[in-house]
TrEMBL record:
Pfam family, one: Alpha-amylase
Matching InterPro entries: GH, GH13_cat_dom, Glyco_hydro_13_N, Glyco_hydro_b, Glycogen_debranch_GlgX, Ig-like_fold, Ig_E-set, ISOA1-3-like_C
Keywords: Glycosidase, Hydrolase, Transit peptide
GO biological-process terms attached to the record: glycogen catabolic process
MF annotations from Gene Ontology: amylo-alpha-1,6-glucosidase activity; isoamylase activity
Origin superkingdom: Bacteria
Protein name: Glycogen operon protein
Ranges of residues in domain Glycosyl hydrolase family 13 catalytic: 161-573
Protein source organism: Terrimicrobium sacchariphilum
Family assignment from sequence similarity: Belongs to the glycosyl hydrolase 13 family.
Keyword Isomerase recorded: no
Length: 710
């Protein structure tokens, strides 16, 4: 039975609304609209027909429809499929008091689940400049079949960070709808073949790719907001990433992609940006939060100016109770409605600041997310720093739940691989899963998301091709992007035809991939590093929607040796549980096997050299310590010689009846540089091993197939 209306406005029948949930939701016979503002004097619902430049109706909320600080109203007989809506708020405009009310602005609903206005990538809004973005109510009848979020232990994750558009936008992708969710679905077999089991998607919440006003000084072309770290709507998927965005069915297309990824056994993690919004600083546009409740949603100083701990003009007031509820509601929405498996939080240290910007020892938001019942099985990953100088890697409030992008692993690995002295001692800790950072706090090695490259910085190929960043294309006089890249061009800046240099660069890339996948913790690979993708030395390609910033699929064949090496290293990690321990290794023999779970070596066995001049590391894992959990009882010996001369390593003595097999040697050409699991090369009688300069080796100690083990 449809309830009777209590009010009318023109031809609209109205009724007292439900204050919760916020946003627009279906009720019998109508739509419930609910929105919060502490300081506004009045609120008006603005209704548009789909695609129309001007509204067809504006319905003021009757004063009695306000409950506390929430306006809630049911409007009957709306055709929600053809409906777009926004709000006008009236109140005091006083910048010094942090109040920005202006009834001329039609504002986005912060809880909108679908946005119109940028339905096709880089296509100007058909609504005009006055009201460019509108909220819509999505059709919610998607058949998930039996899909549920994937339950996989953190120690088993192999993460592939990627940009949805950049993954398939290049013509070489040969897909029907380049740069879309649908095209990504077509490439799932590639992800399966590579061996990754988790994708981390760069921002897919609705953003405005046309907000960048800069031009490329070298070409004169308009730049864009390609990465999307400037959110417009925190409940709505990016329509421009959908082949069907022009039809308003981006929600269904994204869900179809997630269902297909889950069917392939691949988890989905979203990179989310709650530290700032697309409204920027004092001179930024007013789309939503600024015009609805500026003092609540943003950190302001005593003169009403925006605090800027993000480098993006504003900072979201995350630990205000209302804003905290907003963030939690958004994440619950994605977990429940899209079956998302986890979230990576951009500049997550902002989430631990109070309303004055001071770091909190027990941040309410971080604690709430850690213990939220809906998010209980979601992976929570922090980028544990912000632009205000707060660096919390190893110290991020974890509550037994939070993982961290380990920037210290990245920096130590880069310095070690390029042969810097004085890094070996730290690299030992990073290979162990960073117990120096996490063990004392009771955290696990899986707290460490290990990476050497990511979207932010050089690609792996560029890391060994450039000493300096080359960001002139970004229109910021090469002032943007990090300067401390710990990179090495191997003697020539940029691309070269020198085959010796190219061979060295390839070897260093393989060394990096090997180091990443034999380290304890959770490995993360950046899109295209498996095939030698280059950004031409640009280490901050946030504004570049160009073919050189997309994944060139021809590289998979052109650099098939590197791709094969990466795929086989992932397979080797999966085949050997000793490489992905859920607990820290002890360097002790706790089971009486005769060997510690991990032992460290130098050019002589059992005599590691971690001194200042050292540029080599060797360690051995005793698989017998993991055999009880179902792993093989093999011994894994890994040696890295980052010195500029060959070194001879004497190998540890194996148990009687065991012999060494070679798994990988980065000094060898493909396909001899690595084998698939089970195809290891027997090294009969070998006691010493010469490892070439700037090369690394993996050996497997297992029973001699010609001798019975006693």
């Amino acid at each position: 039975m449809i309830p009777n209306h209590t009010h009318t406005h023109a031809d609209f029948r109205l009724r007292y609304g439900h204050p919760l949930p916020f946003g627009a939701s279906h009720v019998p016979g109508g739509v419930n609209f609910s929105i919060f503002s502490t300081y506004a004097k009045s609120c008006t619902l603005v209704l548009f027909e789909k695609g129309s430049a001007q509204p067809y109706a504006e319905i003021p909320f009757p004063p009695e429809y306000r409950l506390g600080n929430v306006w809630a109203m049911i409007v009957f007989d709306l055709s929600y499929e053809d409906l777009e809506y926004g709000y006008r708020f009236d109140g005091i405009f006083d910048v010094r008091e942090g109040l920005h009310f202006d009834p001329k602005n039609v504002l986005l609903d912060p809880y909108a689940r679908e946005i119109s206005g940028r339905e096709v990538w880089k296509q100007e809004s058909r609504h005009g400049d006055a009201h460019p973005f509108r909220a819509r109510i999505p059709f919610e009848a998607f058949d998930w079949e039996h899909d549920r979020p994937i339950k996989r232990p953190e120690s088993e994750l192999v993460i592939y960070e990627m940009h949805v558009r950049g993954f398939t936008a290049h013509p070489s992708a040969e897909v029907q709808h380049p740069g879309t969710y649908a095209a990504m679905k077509d490439k799932i077999p590639y992800l399966k073949d590579l061996g990754v089991n988790t994708v981390e998607l760069m921002p897919i919440f609705e953003f405005d790719e046309l907000e960048n006003t800069r031009t490329n000084p070298l070409t004169g072309e308009q730049l864009c907001n390609y990465w999307g770290y400037s959110t417009l709507a925190f409940f709505a998927p990016k329509a421009g990433f959908a082949a069907t965005g022009k039809h308003g069915t981006q929600v269904e297309e994204l869900k179809d992609l997630i269902r297909a990824l889950h069917s392939a056994g691949i988890k989905v993690i979203l990179d989310v940006v709650f530290n700032h919004t697309a409204e920027g600083g004092e001179n930024g546009p007013t789309y939503s939060f600024r015009g609805i409740d500026n003092k609540t949603y943003y950190m302001l100083d005593s003169s009403g100016k925006y605090a800027n701990y993000t480098g993006c003009g504003n900072t979201v007031n995350c630990n205000h109770p209302v804003v905290r509820g907003f963030v939690i509601a958004s994440l619950r929405h994605w977990a429940a409605e899209y079956h998302i498996d986890g979230f990576r939080f951009d500049l997550a240290s902002v989430l631990g600041r109070d309303s004055t910007g001071a770091p909190l020892s027990n941040p309410p938001l971080l604690e709430s997310l850690a213990y939220d019942p809906v998010l209980a099985q979601c992976d929570l990953i922090a980028e544990a720093w912000d632009a205000g100088g707060l660096y919390q890697v190893g110290n991020f409030p974890s509550y037994g739940r939070w993982l961290e992008w380990n920037g210290k692993f990245r920096d130590a690995a880069r310095r070690f691989i390029k042969g810097d002295p004085g890094v070996v001692g730290e690299m030992v800790q990073r290979i162990m899963g960073s117990p120096d950072m996490y063990a004392a706090a009771g955290r696990k090695p899986t707290a460490s998301i290990n990476f050497i490259t990511c979207h932010d910085g050089f690609t792996l190929r560029d890391l060994f091709s450039y000493n300096e960043k080359h960001n002139l294309d970004n229109g910021e006089n090469n002032n943007d992007g990090a300067n401390d890249n710990w990179s090495w061009n191997c003697g020539v800046e940029g691309e070269t035809t020198d085959q010796e240099i190219n061979a060295l660069r390839l070897r260093l890339q393989k060394n990096a991939i090997m180091l990443l996948f034999v380290s304890q913790g959770v490995p993360m690979l950046w899109m295209g590093d498996e095939s030698g993708r280059t950004q031409r030395g640009n280490n901050n390609a946030y504004c570049q929607d160009e073919d050189w910033n997309w994944l060139d699929w021809a590289l998979t064949e052109e650099n098939k040796g590197l791709y094969r090496f990466t795929r086989n290293m992932i397979a080797f990690r999966k085949a050997n549980p000793a490489l992905r321990q859920p607990e820290f290794l002890t360097s002790k023999d706790v089971i009486g096997s005769g060997y510690p779970d991990i032992s460290w070596h130098g050019v002589l066995p059992w005599k590691p050299d971690w001194g200042l001049p050292s540029r080599s590391i060797a360690f051995m894992l005793c698989g017998r310590h993991g055999a009880a959990a179902g792993g093989p009882s093999h011994f894994i010996y890994c040696a890295f010689n980052m010195y500029y001369k060959p070194l001879e390593f004497t190998l540890p003595v194996l148990p009687k009846g065991y012999v060494w097999f070679r798994v990988a040697d980065t000094s060898l050409p493909s396909p001899d540089d690595i084998v698939e699991p089970g195809q290891e090369v027997l090294l009969p009688g070998v006691k010493t091993l010469t490892i070439a300069e700037r090369s690394s080796v993996i050996l497997l100690g297992k029973p001699d197939p010609s001798v019975a083990v006693t």
